[in-house]
Amino acid sequence: MGVISRGFGARRRESDDRLPPGQYLTEDFPVLSAGPTPRVSTDAWEFAVVGLDGIRRTWSWAQLHDLPLEDITTDIHCVTRWSKLGTRWRGVSLDHLLADAGDGDYTRVFSYGGYTTNVPRADLTGGRAWVAVEFDGEPLAAEHGGPARLLVPHVYFWKSAKWVHGLDLLEKDEPGFWEQNGYNMYGDPWKEERYW
Q1: Where are the alpha helices (DSSP H) in the chain?
Q2: HSE-CB of 187 using CA atoms within 13 angstroms
Q3: Cα radius of gyration (the chain)
Q4: Is the pTM of this model over 0.70?
Q5: What does the alpha-carbon distance between residue 60 and residue 66 come to, in Å, rounded to a whole number?
Q6: In the chain, what is the greatest distance between 2 CA atoms, to the nearest angstrom?
Q7: Residue 174, number of CB atoms within 10 A of its CB
Q8: Could you give the domains of the chain?
């Protein structure tokens, strides 16, 4: 059973060129989940990158914070048609985590709680994606994916996997949870790539 929170009092601003087609502006931060919220302590949390060679590279919470943390201000767009503009995050660029990971043009992102999504590797590098640990100057709340979530703001927000645990590098693109259930394999909000 999915979970939906308040925050759907959205409005359309046709004149805003930052709002993709079919999207409505919200000032709230709606919460949508396909299941219960995992509670992961930072003592137990880790991020893993599993290469095509099978080698698992991991970072603990402390090791992740030893990497450069960046401040990110970005717009986010949910497939359910809400958009939130100018959101403020803090996180570690995937460029650092994928630097020595070897080959693989695709990824399967996996989360605590069993959620998966697919993201092409090129969309996770070049300063386009982060492991986010803060939102709006505060530690990331569990309902929004804390202690850490993926942040890939140039695609629909379901690709920004909550409670992120790591990713597998793949040779071929494979659908994740929502993609297996009819969502688009890529999810570009400017092309309204919502469903298959």
Answers
A1: 61-66, 94-98, 177-180
A2: 27
A3: 16
A4: yes
A5: 10
A6: 49
A7: 15
A8: 3-191 (3.90.420.10)
Tens of pLDDT, residue by residue over 11-67, are: 545 457 899 999 999 998 888 777 788 999 999 999 999 999 999 999 999 999 999
Q: What share of the chain has pLDDT > 70, as a percent?
A: 92
* 170 close to 185: Cβ distance less than 8 angstroms: no
Kindly state the DSSP code that residue 190 receives in the 8-state scheme: G
Query: How far apart are alpha carbons 46 and 40 in whole angstroms?
Result: 10
Q: Report the candidate in 73, 31, 69 with the shortest Cα–Cα distance to residue 162.
A: 31
Closest CA to 32 of 183, 185, 154, 191: 183
Strands 106-111 and 164-170: antiparallel
Give the span between the Cα atoms of 38 and 23, in whole angstroms.
29
Residue 22's region, left for phi above 0, alpha for psi from -120 to 50, else beta, is: left
Contact 82, 95 (CB under 8 A): no
What are residue 65's phi and psi, to 5 degrees? Answer: -75, -10
Lowest mean pLDDT among 8-12, 38-42, 171-175, 177-181: 8-12
Query: What are the percentages of helix, strand and coil residues in the chain, rounded to 5?
Result: 15, 35, 50
Quick: pLDDT tens for 133-169.
999 999 999 999 999 999 999 999 999 999 999 999 9
Contact 145, 130 (CB under 8 A): no
The answer to whether the peptide bond before residue 38 is cis (omega within 30 degrees of 0) is no
